Amino acid sequence: MEFVIGALSAIGAGVFTNPLEVVKTRFQLQGELRKRGNYSVHYRNFIHAGYVIAKVDGITALQKGLVPALCHQWAEDRNLHLKENGEISLAKSMAIGGVMGAIGSFTGSPLYLVKTRLQAQSDNRIAVGHQHHVAGLRHALITAYHQEGIRGLWRGVGGSIPRMVVGSSSQLGTFFICREFLEKNEHFRIERGLLNTFLASMMGGVVVAITMGPLDVISTRLYNQGVDCHGKGLLYSSYMDCVKKMWYTEGFQGFYKGIIPCYMRIGPHTVLCMVFWDQLKQLQSKFMPR
């Protein structure tokens, strides 16, 4: 039952935040390996990006990649069933979150690859990054397999694992510690409930966005790049090659491209995921007591 609660929490949050993921992906690919001023700026800010995508690609484009995104989110967030027994250890929470994040990232990597490519795909007028021209989840998986074999389905996993190790450990560690602090401090005690979960989740979202932002950009670039006839990446040969090329062409700011839509997605997703989780746990305790 704990497994089901974690899965439902991730899926419920994913439905609401997927449009933010689409916007974030477009920002991360805009001006790829180009110096500032040497590329067309299709998306000026978070609101403008949503408007342009809906206008040119259609309103449904804001839900591109929803199915693989939900499946992958379930794989990433299934660690939300962890129980806190007594005092919570920050180091233990972060370690468990990191390990579960790595496992979820590896198992869900093919779905994240498809999600990224579908969300980057758009009308030529506002296209950013490599365009894979895939028709959906099944077609994208088949195309990746035909290009590189089974290994192609895990292309980019080397960028995804560090992203999720850092993201999951910081999210879980911050959430549990903040929730416990709000519940037990003597000055403004907030009992376990919706407000407590909301405040702890927003703090977790800030930490995740700051620590995971650069790793998220790298992961998106590696997943979305095209390959040649030999299955080699057209832009990056490895994780460090991506880091080096980004640094020389885009500078420090390149690693934080899309940081605002990144938080606008991570913050609400963290909140919704934790809120769904807490509420489902309360329903379980009420209707399915042990």
TrEMBL record:
It is found in: Mitochondrion inner membrane. Keywords: Membrane, Mitochondrion, Mitochondrion inner membrane, Repeat, Transmembrane, Transmembrane helix, Transport. Belongs to the mitochondrial carrier (TC 2.A.29) family. GO terms for cellular component: mitochondrial inner membrane. The keyword Transcription does not apply. It is a multi-pass membrane protein. It comes from the Eukaryota. Gene3D superfamilies: Mitochondrial carrier domain. InterPro entries: MCP_dom_sf (IPR023395), MCP_transmembrane (IPR018108), Mito_Carrier_Antiporter (IPR051508). Solcar repeats lie at residues 1-87, 88-181, 192-283. SUPFAM superfamilies: Mitochondrial carrier (SSF103506). This is Solute carrier family 25 member 35. PANTHER family: RE38146P.
